[in-house]
Amino acid sequence: MKSIVIKQANIVNEGEVFVADILIQNGIIQDIGQLDGAVDSIVIDGAGKYILPGLIDTHVHFREPGLTHKGDIYTEAKAAVAGGITSFIEMPNTIPNTLTSELIKEKERIASEKSLANYSFYLGINTGNYNELMNVDNGTVGAITDDGLYFSGTGNMLSNNSDYMQKLFASTDSIISLHCEDESIVEDNLTIARERYGDNIPIEEHSRIRSEDACYQATFRVLGMAIKFNTRLHVLHLSTAKEAMLFSNDVHISKKRVTSEVCIHHLWFCDDDYKTLGVNIKWNPSIKRKEDRNELMRALNDDRIDIVSTDHAPHSQTEKQQNYISSPSGGPMVQHALVAMLELVKQKATSIEKVVEKMCHNPAILFGIEKRGFIRKGYYADLVIVDMNQKWKVDSANILYKCGWSPFMGYTFSSAVCTTIVNGHIVYHQEIFDESIMGKQLTFKSLKQNAKKSQI
């Protein structure tokens, strides 16, 4: 692998923006400063552009195995790399659900052969795999989660199962990442909507069915349990202002026992957009009011919310374009996540330093991902180069998702990803891919509990 020198880019790293060169050798960042090119090195002119650490998306659904008509590890990782995401952690709601170490190993095998990005996989939680959860390898599995598994039937969301939640919270040394919506509240709201509309429920009802109260009650419940047992809890995809008020910014993320994320769609869209985008923005939790969106951005900026992820969840256009009841929740996002956040930077909703903190640094800190998420000597050379002044329009010709659509269809972004480097390999440059080298498996630092766990 040839050495690479990136010259005179605006480096965004650890709260600063500064102009320097970066030397990459053998997949590692060797030096940062005013540098001469090594012999036979590849030189990239970064003048006028911005270079960020490769993004780490800790919440994706890439659909393999079992749902590959929607997406697969190859197609979705390729789209992620084109969007500047160099590492991902994938959810367990594939077929079969990823509930055992053997099934994780099979996903790792597939990714080692097909993923252009670095990869890891969550172990799923259900009431039948407690022993698996107690013996998970925290060196290669960053967390355990219930996310997505509730789609196989009600009663599978951990935040609604207080007895099993208490047992698990009292005993695990893993990060528990949870989808928090109260199923009983959702079902009651759905019953009311059915009584009013029959099977023709308008999409505008989605935020009232999967309501603020459903989210808040479940989040409040799991936070209480985490505090009781000093469990390391990560709450997924906050969608309401009321939930954001439950989280604190009184300590650095590295010292937090309870953390949270917000997704791109909850920062970008609001319930006014149902009129024009319809089921294309049907997510669980639902997109809610403009006031919720604004407060989520404030909570992100003041560090009550710790990371930004995508909840990338592709469905085929045929599946998606059904009536409200039949249309599945979720949408593709990884290719457009970074440029969407950079658009918010230009709107002065946040800063580029904050984007890097929440999409690069903090995911690495939160999950203990080793030697990634920062531009530092000795770290893996996962980098993305961005042109902040390159306009482009999202259309069917440039969408890389296997499902072939995007909720951003027709939108013109004013920034573009020029180059993505994964482990020192230029995998994407000016819309051309070099697929000769695959990504690596992520590894994690030990996150054993500091306090002795209670026993049940």
Automatic annotation (TrEMBL):
<dbReference type="InterPro" id="IPR011059">
    <property type="entry name" value="Metal-dep_hydrolase_composite"/>
</dbReference>
<dbReference type="GO" id="GO:0046872">
    <property type="term" value="F:metal ion binding"/>
</dbReference>
<feature type="domain" description="Amidohydrolase-related">
    <location>
        <begin position="50"/>
        <end position="427"/>
    </location>
</feature>
<comment type="function">
    <text>Catalyzes the reversible cyclization of carbamoyl aspartate to dihydroorotate.</text>
</comment>
<dbReference type="GO" id="GO:0005737">
    <property type="term" value="C:cytoplasm"/>
</dbReference>
<protein>
    <submittedName>
        <fullName>Dihydroorotase</fullName>
    </submittedName>
</protein>
<keyword id="KW-0479">Metal-binding</keyword>
<comment type="similarity">
    <text>Belongs to the metallo-dependent hydrolases superfamily. DHOase family. Class I DHOase subfamily.</text>
</comment>
<dbReference type="GO" id="GO:0006145">
    <property type="term" value="P:purine nucleobase catabolic process"/>
</dbReference>
<dbReference type="Pfam" id="PF01979">
    <property type="entry name" value="Amidohydro_1"/>
</dbReference>
<keyword id="KW-0378">Hydrolase</keyword>
<dbReference type="InterPro" id="IPR032466">
    <property type="entry name" value="Metal_Hydrolase"/>
</dbReference>
<dbReference type="InterPro" id="IPR006680">
    <property type="entry name" value="Amidohydro-rel"/>
</dbReference>
<dbReference type="GO" id="GO:0004038">
    <property type="term" value="F:allantoinase activity"/>
</dbReference>
<dbReference type="InterPro" id="IPR050138">
    <property type="entry name" value="DHOase/Allantoinase_Hydrolase"/>
</dbReference>
<dbReference type="InterPro" id="IPR002195">
    <property type="entry name" value="Dihydroorotase_CS"/>
</dbReference>
